[in-house]
Amino acid sequence: MRIRAVAARQKGLLAAGVLVGLAGTAAMLLQPVLLGRLIANVSAGESATGPVVGIALLFVADAVLATLNVYLIGLAGENMVLDMRTTLTGRLLRSRLEAFRRLEHGDVMNRTLADTSLARLALSSSVAQMVTSAFTVVGCVVAMAWIDWRLLLAALACLGLAAGAGLLLAGAVRRAATCNREDTSAYGSGLLRVLGALTTVKASRAEDREGEHLAELAGNARRSGIRVTRLSAMFLPAINVGTQLSLAVVITWGIARTATGTLQLADLTAFVMYLFYLVSPLVLFFMGLGEVQQGRAAIARVVELADLEQEEDDGRTAIAGHPRAGAPAVEFRDVGFRYEGAATPAVDGVSFTLPATGVTAVVGPSGAGKSTVFQLVERFMAPDQGSVRLLGQDAGDVSLAQWRSRIALVEQDCPLMRGTLRENLVYACPDADDEQVRDAVRAAHLEDVVAALPDGLDTRLGEAGVGLSGGQRQRLAVARALLTRPSVLLLDEATSQLDSDSERALRETVTSLGDRCQVITVAHRMSTAMSADHILVMEGGRLRAQGPHARLMDDDELYRRLADQQLSPVALAG
Ligand SMILES: Nc1ncnc2c1ncn2[C@@H]1O[C@H](COP(=O)(O)OP(=O)(O)OP(=O)(O)O)[C@@H](O)[C@H]1O
Q1: Which end of the chain, N or C, is less packed with Cβ atoms under 10 Å?
Q2: What is the ipTM of this complex?
Q3: Which is it for strands 460-461 and 488-492: parallel, antiparallel or unpaired?
Q4: How far apart are CA 400 and CA 382, in angstroms?
């Protein structure tokens, strides 16, 4: 994301806002001139009507223009936040899964919510405020120089000290604010991590420990927040001391000079009025500078998130491609893949060919690389060596969206989206009609579940599918997958969530699906592997054997051991 481009898209509104602000300032700067004339007229016994009407008009113009200025700048700021958030959302949704998984969710939330708001302040209101304030300061200084340059030098000497202190403070605020953003983000990440695993926390009786850790993180954020407040709080007093000093000098010296007749009372009044006008913009200028400094830290964090690595094909470069008739559903040709930072590859020199239809079971001990094979089929990441082909086509020949439209994935923990059961079912296929939904529900053996829910298909499911058991969630995910009529169905079998009736029902569904497409299932139960047409046996990232159950029982020692462990009378009784 180019922050300059975000600001440039709002340059019309920003320029209008600043111009209106400058006009308002000009209206304000004219007030002392008319007031001086009013005093002069009254002193000379002349009519006061003209200056009084003029001052009233300037008051009204000042108020109207100031309001319009805040509105226009605020509008530009909100547009910028929208721009940044939609860009970030798009980049997050199209990010490479591996890069995304390295992020802390709390930190992502902080960057998209709080940091974009701070960046908005820095890019819109603070900058606009600094421009109008600087204009006011310059205007006041010019007017004061015109009235009496010696008084001005005396006033500026006092205010200059305060301004110098203000500049030093602005730098310190920026450093403290960066630290505070990091601390707040660490607290947010910690909180999300704990809330995401609340059942584990409770079951481990770790509430106190986690509570203390979170309190420590919150304490860090408080400490750095206080540092920001302390430094920011020193702005006003620094400016105030300078103002009071300059007022004392100007009034004492000014009165002395009016007594000697070298300065008119009307001029001294106008000068003091300009001095008052000067103070508030000076404060605002330095506050704006502080906000810009804080905003720079936030902008850097927003840009860093926007730089998140993207999938190699972001869906906009679709290449038309047609699968070859009768081509194998999935082919791995000497595929190797190593996770970043991992010592050994998760998949190493794997080759297999699976036909257009049938059921394939992938078995192997934990960490063998089964899920990684699935992720490579989905193109969640690209292999480091070899190639993955789908329906006879190479990954380079098919856009990511087309590729994934031919695959359906049923995950082990089946996350559900918020909304009704029906909305969840048609998530990957929003145009499905009632009959297709009914067929999918029947095929996934979900009819009883739907009938038992208060509003049937229109029952609202809570966050993460509250209201459905793990087994029901997996069958719902199967129904959702069926609606897309995939060529390849990837199913990561639930390890423990299905009772034996549901398990049998799901197995029947999977077997019948094998007639229409290639079903590849990570089989945690040997019963699933036994009923498959083809079995891939993985170990340590390598494909050590493949074939049907009977042959593997004869030929492969690991497979036989896995089968014996699960199918022994003790295991079956358990
Ligand atoms: N995101 C990751 N980053 C680094 N290493 C990973 C990552 N995911 C998996 N691995 C490693 O890659 C190897 C294969 O993991 P994979 O999840 O594919 O195994 P699996 O056979 O599916 O295991 P399980 O049956 O326990 O789910 C393991 O050594 C694992 O530690």
Answers
A1: C
A2: 0.97
A3: unpaired
A4: 11
Q: Distance between CA atoms of 383 and 388, rounded to whole angstroms? A: 8
Instruction: Return the best residue to mutate from 96, 97, 339, 340 for the ligand 1 pocket (most ligand atoms within 8 A of CB).
Output: 339
Structure confidence by residue, pLDDT tens digits, 523-567: 888 888 888 999 999 999 999 999 999 999 998 899 998 888 776
Q: What is the pLDDT of residues 423-464, one digit of tens each?
A: 888 888 888 888 999 988 888 888 888 888 888 888 887 654
Q: How far is CA 244 from CA 32, 188, 284, in A?
A: 20, 43, 17
Distance CA 67, CA 51 (A): 24
Residue range 330-573 in CATH 3.40.50.720 = no
Residue 111: DSSP 8-state: I
Q: Does 3-306 match 330-573 in CATH topology?
A: no
Is 3-306 a CATH 1.20.272.10 domain?
Answer: no
For ligand 1, atom 12, which residue shows the shortest CA distance? 346
- Ligand 1 environment, Cβ below 6 A: 101, 339, 342, 346, 364, 366-372
pTM: 0.73
- Break the chain into its structural domains and give their ranges: 3-306, 330-573
The residues pairing with 539 across neighbouring beta strands, listed in sequence order, are 542
